[in-house]
Automatic annotation (TrEMBL):
Protein name: Aminoglycoside phosphotransferase domain-containing protein
SUPFAM superfamilies (UniProt xref): Protein kinase-like (PK-like)
TM stretches of this protein: none
Organism from which the protein derives: Candidatus Roizmanbacteria bacterium CG2_30_33_16
Domain (Aminoglycoside phosphotransferase): residue spans on this chain: 229-279
Domain of life assignment: Bacteria
Length: 351
């Protein structure tokens, strides 16, 4: 029998909610089902949600398959394997495998918030890993993406902020130069904003000429600071779905395939931008994070936060699908992104 904690963990799967969305046919789903089933048999793992059910829920839009499994010793573990073998997906997944091998090294300083990797694949043709089961509750309500799954206490918010700050300011010192990390390409992002995103948003009617000028002035004014601050370790996908909390207020952070070097306010801005349903929590977690920043860096950090919010939300508005949301919620979220972009183009603003 699957206990309540397993059900909470397994709810990490986001079902597709926009019913008009067709199945992703960029790869052979039946072939992947057969391959994953063979791999599970080989590893002697019995999944709670088999590949067939997983693909039915996600319609082929997840690039990974993951499930709570029972191993040959009757222990719960988490199995994760790559589904889409395109170049970008392979590179991202290999990053997490390298990260797993690094933190499994006995000389790497222990971090309670890091997951425990029990096995990591060695073959480039078959990319997978097995993690120790996390008996914590996932923070995101998967029926309503961007919403907390349960009420959260002040100390838990402090712990989330502290964990993020530790990742951003200390983890790089302990992993570098053992990890190969790319740097956030600021020049390319600015070019993309000015030549692709803003013209596209103007055509779609989401932004007018005067707003574009405000965005341009701000980005040009802070470009030097952003480049100078581009050397911190960031998780890259710090959202509620990747945060687990225990009843004793311990934290686990999962999904490490998007880590890279960026400024120290990227992860907090990323988390904030995904919390359109949680106004109280999003303000509190940013406040707690900024209390950890040295006083002489606070003003510069506010500028970095605004820059991150701006380029993230503009990209979300232009490219975002968010098919895990209903059409109504997608429209609400897009409005939130637009308001957030407009406010932070002018000033540091927690709305």
């Amino acid at each position: 029998m699957i206990d309540s904690k397993t059900r909470v963990l397994q709810s990490n799967i986001n079902p597709i909610k926009q019913h008009h969305v067709q199945w992703n046919n960029t790869y052979d789903i039946k072939q992947q089902e057969n391959r994953i089933n063979s791999l599970l048999d080989k590893l002697k793992l019995v999944p709670e949600i088999n590949p067939e059910k997983f693909f039915l829920l996600t319609r082929g839009y997840k690039h990974r398959y993951f499930a709570v499994c029972i191993d040959e010793n009757k222990q719960k573990v988490i199995f994760n394997c790559l589904v889409r073998y395109d170049k970008l997906s392979i590179q991202s997944y290999q990053k997490e495998l390298r990260f797993a091998q690094l933190i499994n090294n006995p000389h790497f300083p222990h971090k309670d918030y890091l997951p425990t990797y029990l096995q990591v694949s060695q073959s480039p043709q078959e990319l997978w890993f097995i993690q120790k089961y996390i008996s914590y509750a996932i923070l995101e309500n998967k029926e309503n993406m961007g919403q907390l799954a349960f009420p959260i206490k002040t100390q838990q918010i402090k712990n989330i902020a502290n964990t993020m700050y530790d990742i951003n300011t200390r983890l790089l010192k302990e992993s570098y130069p053992k990890l190969t990390m790319h740097k956030f390409d600021i020049d390319n992002k600015i070019t993309e904003i000015f030549q692709i995103i803003l013209p596209s948003l103007k055509i779609k009617g989401f932004i007018n000429e005067s707003s574009i000028k405000v965005v341009e002035r701000f980005i040009y004014s802070c470009a030097t600071l952003v480049k100078r601050s581009n050397y911190y370790f960031v998780h890259g996908d710090f959202n509620l779905g990747n945060i687990f909390l225990s009843t004793s207020q311990n934290i686990k952070i999962i999904d490490w395939e998007t880590y890279h070097q960026n400024n120290h306010c990227y992860d907090i801005a990323y988390l904030y931008s995904r919390l359109f349903r949680e106004p109280a929590f999003r303000k509190k977690v940013v406040s707690e994070f900024f209390q950890l920043i040295p006083e002489d860096k606070k003003e510069g950090s506010k500028i970095l936060f605004r820059f991150n919010i701006l380029h993230l939300t503009l990209s979300y508005i232009n490219y975002g699908l968010f098919i895990e949301l209903t059409k109504k919620d997608f429209q609400l979220q897009r409005k939130w992104f637009i308001d957030l972009a407009k406010n932070n183009a002018s000033k540091f603003s927690l709305i």
